Amino acid sequence: MKFAIQINEGPYTHQATDSAYHFAKAAIDNGHEVMRIFFYHDGVNNGTRLTTPPQDDRHIVNRWAELAKEHDLDLVLCVAAAQRRGIADADESKRNGKDADNIQEGFRISGLGQLIEAGIQADRLVVFGD
Amino acid sequence: MKFAIQINEGPYTHQATDSAYHFAKAAIDNGHEVMRIFFYHDGVNNGTRLTTPPQDDRHIVNRWAELAKEHDLDLVLCVAAAQRRGIADADESKRNGKDADNIQEGFRISGLGQLIEAGIQADRLVVFGD
Amino acid sequence: MSEGTVKQFLYVNRKAPHGTIYALESLEVVLIGAAFEQDVRLAFMDDGVFQILKGQDTNGIGTKNFAPTYNALGDYDINKIYVEKESLDERGLTEDDLMALTYEDEDDDWAEKSSISIVSRTEMADLIDSSDVMFNF
Amino acid sequence: MSEGTVKQFLYVNRKAPHGTIYALESLEVVLIGAAFEQDVRLAFMDDGVFQILKGQDTNGIGTKNFAPTYNALGDYDINKIYVEKESLDERGLTEDDLMALTYEDEDDDWAEKSSISIVSRTEMADLIDSSDVMFNF
Amino acid sequence: MAILHTVNKSPFDKNSLERAIGTAKEGSSVLLLEDGVYGAISGASSSAMVEDAMKTVKVYALGADVDARGIKGRVIDGIELVDYAAFVKLAAEHSQVQSWL
Amino acid sequence: MAILHTVNKSPFDKNSLERAIGTAKEGSSVLLLEDGVYGAISGASSSAMVEDAMKTVKVYALGADVDARGIKGRVIDGIELVDYAAFVKLAAEHSQVQSWL
Questions:
Q1: pLDDT digits (tens, 9 = 90+) for B40-66
Q2: I need a labelling partner for F68 at 20 to 30 A (CA). Which of B7, C36, C74, E61 fits?
Q3: Which helix H or strand E contains B9, and what residues bound it?
Q4: pLDDT tens readout for residues A4-41
Q5: Does A106 touch chain C (CB under 8 A)?
Q6: pLDDT reading at D2 higher than 80
């Protein structure tokens, strides 16, 4: 079965992103397809490479990036939400006249159409939020 | 009277930071002292210079920075909260082996002791959150 | 996107506007989604009914007033808006307190018609049951 | 910091642990704050009482289990912990369901004593009223 | 001096207002702000609780938040609308501020 | 096929569980996760509502979240504890997933 996942909250602050991770992993481990993980609202904060959690805690951002690399997942940060919250890739950074970017490799920034498309193409859209 | 303000939530997502801004401004305009504004939890996301809100919307980060410049305010981002959420100044970035930083000028990163100290020194601690 | 797929989309709006950004960013999805030619329905329940209350003016809090944008939904061919009666009742509201969201019916000489249907909680449950995708924010 | 100022600090804990980070980050403030030698009290009410429930094990959700850290509060001379009875009742809990948070009383030959007092909602209101600073997260 | 209790959540969604009212002692004040101003609506399921509280506690609502939500004409009689400057004044005049987040 | 309703909020704090149960039709399912698992507690003010719902709706709770919160011994009889793999299976077996955020 083809799943799409939407994540509305940032890492550490809400458990939503942890639940989504465990759900995505279980789906893959059980032979399902996760066609896209769409990060919306504060969810875009999952995609910054500048996080440094305590040594004894999970590294949520890296965990997503590793899962994506292993299973060729499509991790999409909503561009409008990302702009409001200060998540930028090199292109966005340049376009908005910024002197730095902070996106984690393995994520990409794209439009809300990617969420709609996921809703159309996936058999199930599962939302994790606050 | 001496006020300290604590902000627990990030910009745009929650109105907390807007309310805190209007409160701080009104306090200053009415002759009070705002001795410190302490950003905790997702509140640290108020301090990134990478945000690009829509043209017709307020720029929350810049608004803080301007208010701070005008009135010499002490805008403090909690270091532990900032590390978890990917907010870093040049020192933090270097210390944690990162290749970029994203703090907005006018904010500084410091420890939780700054909140405790504010609680002791201020006549009133007013908290804005979720 | 598979050509020709038309799904029953349901946007579930349960949160108050202004205090958090969910209502505004949800509306942005609805507007973008309109281009995808799906069968779109919007549900307003719980504090979500406050999103389409008349007379909202955000000047004093300095945030973006996105309430007028709901008026544009009709132009985007989004005209199936369901508001839960029990949620209105609990808040002391009636349909008259809501913005008059309308659309022009192309099958009826472009007559202006209301997009809003007031439904019971049971009908809302049926609506959820009959949808192919639920968007929650 | 004004030398010698001692204020009545009250940490108000009303949120459940694990689902959000507020409880964990609040506890970090309490631990840091212990060095400032103020008169510290912790209040647990509403879903906050779940923070100090026995037997929490976060292995399955993969998050940091900070519950054991509450046991260290006594060593930091934080031994005035107030738990609201009405909040326990509503959740079907009693004091026995809570972690046995204790401290060693230096004025009583280091006898181990409970740090927890179960108080009524009225007493909780008095506690808030008598505090100089309230920390809310 | 008495406490200023602030509530920023809708009473239809969360228990913060009920909780603040239940804890506010006679002579203290409750200020509704952000989504908390929905608690100022008359004729709603929350209104009786608020009206009852107003017998012993002074209730304020932030006018800017009331306007933003389009409920100015629905505010319970006796709830005083205040601006941010008055919010600051209330915070200064009360002994402390308790935010029911 | 019926809907899988998910609830991730404490019933003592928010109305999500009440709302999910009020909307879940006979034959559909409710999965409690994150702070939503507090709704699985027996002997609490929320228990009667859940037990009543269980006459027409199947209720599940995520075991990992139950363990994290130390409430394994308190779960209402008849609520089935599931792991993430079973959550995925439930999502696949129901017609859609409605998240009561």
A1: 999 999 999 999 999 999 999 999 999
A2: B7
A3: none
A4: 999 999 999 999 999 999 999 999 999 999 999 999 99
A5: no
A6: no
The answer to whether C20 contacts chain F (CB < 8 Å) is no
* C-alpha–C-alpha distance, residues C80 and C77, integer Å: 9
Q: Tokens 């200053």, residue?
A: B28
Residue among B41, B113, B119 minimizing CB distance to D133: B119
Task: Quickly tell me which residue has 């107030």 as its tokens.
Answer: D82
Q: Which of A37, A68, A75, A78 is catalytic?
A: A78
- Are B26 and E64 a contacting pair at CB < 8 A? no
D10-59 residue pLDDT tens: 999 999 999 999 999 999 999 999 999 999 999 999 999 999 999 999 99
Query: What's the CA gap between C136 and A11, in Å, rounded?
Result: 19
Cα(E35)–Cα(C47) distance, integer angstroms: 10
State the count of interchain CB pairs (< 8 A) between A and C: 55
CB pairs under 8 A between E and F: 7
Q: Is B12 on the interface with C (CB under 8 A)?
A: yes
Question: E-contacting residues of C 48-77, CB under 8 Å?
Answer: 50, 53-61, 63, 65, 67
Neighbouring residues of A130: CB distance < 8 A, sequence distance ≥ 6 = A8, A9, A14, A16, F101
Would you call D1 and B120 a contact, using CB atoms and an 8 Å cutoff?
yes
Do the beta carbons of residue A129 and residue F98 sit within 8 Å?
no
Q: Supply the CATH number for residue E82's domain.
A: 3.40.1260.10
Domain with E50 in it: 3-100
Residue among A81, A121, A125 whose CB faces C25 most closely: A81
Model confidence at D1, in pLDDT bands (50, 70, 90)?
very low
Question: What digits encode the pLDDT tens for the residues E63-95?
Answer: 999 999 999 999 999 999 999 999 999 999 999
Distance of alpha carbon D61 from alpha carbon A58, whole angstroms: 11
Residues of chain B with Cβ-Cβ distance to E91 below 8 Å are: 3, 23, 124, 126
Q: Give the pLDDT score at C3.
A: 57
Chains that touch C (3 or more CB pairs under 8 A): A, B, E, F
Pair A56, A49: CB distance under 8 Å: no
Contacts of B6 in chain D (CB under 8 A): 135
| Tokens linked to D113 | 């004593």
Look at strands F3-7 and F29-32 and give their pairing. Answer: parallel
Contacts of B62 (CB under 8 A, 6+ apart): B104
- Do the chains contact at B16 and E87, CB–CB below 8 Å? no
Average pLDDT score, chain D: 96
Q: Do C121 and F100 touch (CB under 8 A)?
A: no
How many distinct structural domains can be found in chain E?
1
CB nearest E10 (choices: C47, C57, C59): C47
Q: What domains does chain B contain, in order, with CATH numbers?
A: 2-128 (3.40.1260.10)
Instruction: Answer whether F13 sits within 8 Å of E15, measured CB to CB.
Output: yes
Question: How many alpha carbons fall within 13 Å on the CB side of residue B57?
Answer: 19
Residues 6+ apart with CB under 8 A from A27: A3, A33, A34, F88
Contact in structure between A51 and B86 (CB atoms under 8 Å): yes
Q: What is the pLDDT of residues F29-83, one digit of tens each?
A: 999 999 999 999 999 999 999 999 999 999 999 999 999 999 999 999 999 999 9
Is B69 catalytic? The answer is: no
